[in-house]
Amino acid sequence: MATIPDHDMVHHQTTLELEPKDLFDYSKRSQWLRAAVLGANDGLVSTASLMMGVGAVKKDMKAMILTGFAGLVAGACSMAIGELVSVYSQLDIEVAQIKREINRRDIVEAEVDSLPNPWQAAAASALAFSLGAIVPLLAASFIKPYKVRVLVVAVAVTVALAVFGWLGAALGRAPAVKSTFRVVVGGWMAMAITYGLTMLIGAKGLH
Q1: DSSP assignment, residue 150?
Q2: Which of 74, 92, 156, 180 could bond 139 through an S-S bridge, CB–CB 3.0 to 4.6 Å?
Q3: Is the pLDDT score of 35 beyond 50?
Q4: pLDDT, averaged across the chain
Q5: CA atoms within 13 A on the CB side of 64
Q6: What confidence tens digit (pLDDT) does each residue in 40-52 have?
Q7: Are 164 and 37 spatial neighbours (Cβ–Cβ below 8 Å)?
Q8: Contact at 8 Å (CB) between 176 and 169?
Q9: 177-207 burial by CB neighbour count: b if 16+ within 10 A, else e?
Q10: Integer Cα distance of 41 and 162 in angstroms
């Protein structure tokens, strides 16, 4: 007599079969998102620090904006090239490993297709860095008074740091308050150190 499979058992087995893939896909997505948040945070802090450093010795708005723009372009290019080289190296290693372990060509091609795309990774890194770097640039672009401009940049950067810190904590499942606090304080320290050292060098003069 044929045995009819229990519906709950079939559903449980199906759920167990789907869970690892779902968890893996979620893990990959969260890693990409977290990397994007970190890239945006890098763009924010480095560009804001450059602008603050130049602003310490040159109060002209044009100089501050040009410095920030140069930092955005240079940083985005550096992030893209670094990510491209890194992912290509990882890709070569993983493809070689797959070919050693699997002899069937169709399986190798399927596995290779599932690996990260270096050009997508490079574009994502450059875009994330640029999105972070644009915050202090926009904050300083329309304010001529020096003190007000520096204050507005500091406030805008602080808000953005808090947002990026919270997003990074949420994606990494870390305590939100502590992570946000560390990101904000770290950004403040970077800007303060750059501002202070540039002012010190600028006060003594370069000959």
Answers
A1: H
A2: 156
A3: yes
A4: 79
A5: 28
A6: 999 999 999 999 9
A7: yes
A8: yes
A9: eebbebbbeebbebbeebbeebeeeeeeeee
A10: 10
Taking the C-alpha atoms of residue 89 and residue 97, their distance in angstroms, rounded to an integer, is 12
Look at 99-108, 136-145, 188-197 and tell me which has the smallest mean pLDDT.
Answer: 99-108
Residue 165 scores a pLDDT above 80: yes
Q: What is the distance between the alpha carbons of residues 126 and 43, in angstroms, rounded to a whole number?
A: 9
Q: What count of other Cβ atoms lies within 10 Å of the Cβ of residue 16?
A: 9
One DSSP character per residue, 14-79 reads HHHHHHHHHHHHHHHHHHHHHHHHHHHHHHHHHHHHHHHHHHHH---HHHHHHHHHHHHHHHHHHH
* Cβ atoms 41, 183 nearer than 8 A: yes
With contact defined as beta carbons under 8 Å apart, do 170 and 83 qualify? no
Closest of 164, 166, 158, 163 to residue 187, by C-alpha: 158
With a cut of 60, say whether residue 138 has pLDDT above it: yes
Q: What is the Cα–Cα distance from 30 to 196, expressed in whole angstroms? A: 37
pLDDT band for position 17 (50/70/90)? very low
Inform me whether the pLDDT recorded for 148 exceeds 70. Answer: yes
Identify the sign of the CA torsion 110, 37, 73, 135: positive
| Alpha carbon distance 139, 143 (integer Å) | 8
Angstrom distances, CA of residue 82 to CA of 39, 47, 77: 12, 18, 8
